[in-house]
């Protein structure tokens, strides 16, 4: 079993166990706030179940029908998780409104507080571990799953503080107020996951990822690489797909062009924390490139070198050579 699958299985089993504990706490106390927390745990179990399948599917090799692999299923997994969180938040708010007019009788608060406090601690530790490992493995599904567990832990901590306050003051309306606050918090986090997944499914550019690629190129550039432009970066699961135009001296042989492209490809794959597939279009240099070309002893130079152009997101992603900027 792969590392990703083991981590998702850990999340699934943890979520299932904590869900049972939270519902026990709810039946002991009849607390609307604890029901809120228990309802979100159902989402954790369903989302982790689908995450397990999506990790399996994303790991499948490329085929004729999926030449870029199956990694985009992770965006769908994040979409499902965000949607379920959003639905859970909506249900929690509806139940909160219901209990304004039909309040429930609370009991055994000490036992309920103790049980959900334990679940908060376990959720935070497991969520932090899964999210950290997900980033290291380049898995959006694991990152989302770990973040969801941490969000669950934060909401449970808020719930415990509110229940303790209610116990001390005797103000029963605090229970409903907590459910409204947590329901709104859960809705917001569901929206953020939905936004992230839709952006990924529509190939929205990841600005931080593009910056990382450009920084690697700038720090490891060769004098032969006159400019790089029309750079595009897309993420498919735990792989990156990068394409760009690389300007090289126009007198280079096809073999030399191939060697330079291979060097660039190797550098990016070595320096980036995620496997990268490069598609590079080689452009011949033009006389206008001479002013910023640093090739020594160039036999066709028509202008002196005058300025070094630093590769930044703005000029590397533009679909034009740098002298046209």
UniProtKB/TrEMBL annotation:
NCBIfam families the record matches: CDF
Stored InterPro entries: Cation_efflux (IPR002524), Cation_efflux_CTD (IPR027470), Cation_efflux_CTD_sf (IPR036837), Cation_efflux_TM (IPR058533), Cation_efflux_TMD_sf (IPR027469), CDF_Transporter (IPR050291)
One Pfam short name: Cation_efflux
Subcellular location: Membrane
Coiled coil feature spans: none
Bilayer topology term: Multi-pass membrane protein
Keyword Membrane listed: yes
Classification of source organism: Bacteria, Pseudomonadati, Bacteroidota, Sphingobacteriia, Sphingobacteriales
Domain of life of the source: Bacteria
Stated family: Belongs to the cation diffusion facilitator (CDF) transporter (TC 2.A.4) family.
PANTHER family noted in UniProt: MITOCHONDRIAL METAL TRANSPORTER 1-RELATED (PTHR43840:SF15)
Transmembrane segments: 7-29, 41-59, 79-101, 113-131, 151-170
Protein name: Cation diffusion facilitator family transporter
Chief place where the protein resides: membrane
Keywords: Membrane, Transmembrane, Transmembrane helix, Transport
All residue ranges annotated as the Cation efflux protein transmembrane domain in the record: 8-202
Residues covered by the Cation efflux protein cytoplasmic domain: 210-285
């Amino acid at each position: 079993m792969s590392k990703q699958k083991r981590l998702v299985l850990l999340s699934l089993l943890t979520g299932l166990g904590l869900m049972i504990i939270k519902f026990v706490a709810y039946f002991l106390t009849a607390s609307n706030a604890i029901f809120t927390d228990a309802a979100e745990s159902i989402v954790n179990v369903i989302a982790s179940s689908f995450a397990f399948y999506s990790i399996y599917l994303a790991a499948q090799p490329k085929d004729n029908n999926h030449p870029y692999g199956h990694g985009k299923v992770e965006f769908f997994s994040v979409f499902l998780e965000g949607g379920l969180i959003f639905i859970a938040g909506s249900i929690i708010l509806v139940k909160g409104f219901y209990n304004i007019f039909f309040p429930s009788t609370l009991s055994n608060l000490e036992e309920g507080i103790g049980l959900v406090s334990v679940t908060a601690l376990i959720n935070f530790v497991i969520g932090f571990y899964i999210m950290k490992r997900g980033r290291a493995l380049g898995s959006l599904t694991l990152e989302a799953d770990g973040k969801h567990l941490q969000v669950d832990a934060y909401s449970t901590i808020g719930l415990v503080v509110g229940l303790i306050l209610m116990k001390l003051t005797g103000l029963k309306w605090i229970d409903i107020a907590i459910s409204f606050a947590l329901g709104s918090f859960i809705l917001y986090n569901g929206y953020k996951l939905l936004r992230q997944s839709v952006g990924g499914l529509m190939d929205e550019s990841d600005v931080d990822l593009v910056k990382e690629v450009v920084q690697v190129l700038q720090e490891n550039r060769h004098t032969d690489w006159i400019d790089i432009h029309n750079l595009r970066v897309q993420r498919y699961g735990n792989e990156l797909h990068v394409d760009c135009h690389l300007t090289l001296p126009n007198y280079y042989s096809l073999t030399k062009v191939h060697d330079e492209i291979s060097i660039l490809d190797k550098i990016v794959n070595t320096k980036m924390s995620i496997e990268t597939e490069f598609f590079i279009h080689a452009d011949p240099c033009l006389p206008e490139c001479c002013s910023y070309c640093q090739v020594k002893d160039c036999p066709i130079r028509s202008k002196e070198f005058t300025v070094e152009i630093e590769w930044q997101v703005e000029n590397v992603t533009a679909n034009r050579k740098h002298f046209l900027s």
